[in-house]
């Protein structure tokens, strides 16, 4: 679910369309958008406080085989919520799990890891090592 939640909607739609067979599903809860309260803690472990609200879209689907998939995604991306919920339901079925892993999850995870490595390399290029700098007042 973390891979699906962190994927851009257009990337998830592309990966979802690569499934060889479009799964048959019904909505238990059609995609709907609402707000959730984001809470924080002072110092990470202190008193909780309300940080603000975030827009979330949720969806619940049931496959023809009875598996139920749930998804909560940040933003107003109803299609992303449907695709994530269907992938969650397919993941729960032993026969379709390898298919979802190979055609949806693994390509998305590989892309996310490559992007994280690129960002880390870009950030590392700007790192300053203060222990090797000379003060000049010796």
UniProtKB/TrEMBL annotation:
Entry-linked Pfam families: PhnG
- NCBIfam families listed in its UniProt record: PhnG_redo
Q: Out of the domains of life, which is the source?
A: Bacteria
Q: Name one GO biological process term.
A: organic phosphonate transport
- Name-wise, this protein is Protein phnG
The organism is Roseibium aquae
InterPro entries noted in UniProt: Phosphonate_metab_PhnG
Organism lineage reads as: Bacteria, Pseudomonadati, Pseudomonadota, Alphaproteobacteria, Hyphomicrobiales
């Amino acid at each position: 679910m973390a891979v699906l939640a962190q994927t851009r909607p257009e990337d998830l739609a592309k990966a979802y369309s690569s499934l060889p067979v479009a799964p048959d599903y019904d909505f238990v809860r059609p995609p709907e958008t609402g707000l959730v309260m984001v809470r924080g803690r002072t110092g990470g472990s202190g008193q909780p406080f309300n940080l603000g609200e975030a827009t979330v879209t949720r969806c619940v689907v049931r496959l023809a085989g009875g598996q139920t998939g749930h998804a909560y995604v940040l933003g107003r991306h109803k299609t992303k919520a449907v695709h994530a919920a269907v992938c969650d339901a397919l993941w729960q079925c032993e026969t379709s799990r390898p298919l979802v892993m190979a055609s949806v999850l693994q390509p998305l995870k590989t892309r996310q890891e490559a992007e994280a490595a690129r960002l880390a390399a870009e950030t590392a290029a700007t790192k300053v090592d203060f222990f090797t700098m000379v003060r000049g007042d010796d």
